[in-house]
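Schema walk-through. Below, the input block comes first and the output block second. Nothing else is stored per chain. Lengths vary across the set, and this one has 478 residues.
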Amino acid sequence: MFNWLGNFFSGRRKLRNRAPHIESLATHNRHLPGPPPELHSARIYEQSPWVYIAINRIAEAGALAPLQVYRLDGEERIGINNHPLEQLLASPNPLTSRFELFEQTLGALELHGNAYWFLAGDERGRPHEIWLLRPDRMTVVPDATRVVAGYLYEIAGQHIPLDAVEVLHFRRWHPNNDFYGLSPITAARGAILSDRHMADWNRQTFGQDHGVPAGIVNIRDFISDTDFERLKREWRNYYGGTARKTAFLRGGAMEWQNIGLSHTDLDFLQGRVAQRDEILNIFGIPVGLVSENATEANAKVAERQFIERTLWPKLVRIAQKISAELLPFYSGDLVAEFDDIRPTDTQARLAEIRAAYPLLSINELRAQYFQLPPVAWGEEAVGADTNPLLRENTGRGDLAGRPPSATAEVAHKSAIETELAQWERFALNRLGEAEQTRPFEVKALPDELAFEVSAGLMFAGDRQVVKSVFAGVRERLD
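--- output ---
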């Protein structure tokens, strides 16, 4: 055995032209009737409040993210405005909007682990409609050569064959299935059922004929059958409803022994909170997003974690599938990507800019960190004396095209000094705030000086640094 394996591996020195397990894979899955049942996912979505909240948060947030199409030119990505795919996604079919398409796609992935788009083509062979198909009706048809020969879509016992090229199959990873994805509901099965049973027990406790705790009426003295039946009848007639009343019965010596467990004994509320947290964690929803006790800081951290660790990977999965199987219908080397909605770390960004400050020119800083176009005065380093106002014989002869008269020059300089003073007060008043409500509006100050002030204020951590930024600009003006 080992000699045979050794001869086999020692003699092979090149890659095979196709995977050797495909045929066996197709044969093994040939008789599978469809995707594995996921504990009636749609019904759980309808009846479990935490599953409903988790899936809606993911689906609705993801549907808001813009999708862009880029043309690849080497390592560079060039945006394409109003690409035909973007037009198609804006109106996928007569019944569905763009938001609804992505909302339902993300929802299907969370409910079933699978989502399917059917592509209807035009006379040129390009898709002109996209329809979302229900995953619980879809069956993958394996093929020994193409891996997937197609799909069968079942409606009321009728099987509709679909070719593989007509269907985009989005799926999550499933460790025990070759063709279908794994739903988070499967992993959350225990928590969902426990929460459901606790909710049912709570409802039944306060429902009809369940208003009295369970217990035993112990009659100490012997009584006749007639009196015994009378006692039972009186108990049920007067104390068997939803009202909680004190029981007074005629008969011999009696005592009440409570054998039921109250909500307090069961720590009912904390139990439901624990089930909620487990369900939300499985779906990747931070508890701070839904907790009524979360502080503003906790809510912001929770929102950031949700976007970075939960929502963004799901958007990447969809975008890469579209790039691989939908964009080839269009000519060119194209890729689809969602806009990067991940929040930036302000402190890390400032540290990066601070490190690049002495190394990059103004134009490089403008392009890399502020997405601004280049300017004529921005080819040197930020710290260099590139201000044309400070140079002699610049050719401009004035500030921002001022008239040659001394009166106009004085007036213009006064306006700049006034604006600098206003900006300094504006920066000092907002020092230490995490987010400014609005930036300072620059009117009189030249662009190059305004940029230097903005760059300097990004690194200002106290009042002294802020004042030194404006003092340095005033010295240059003098």
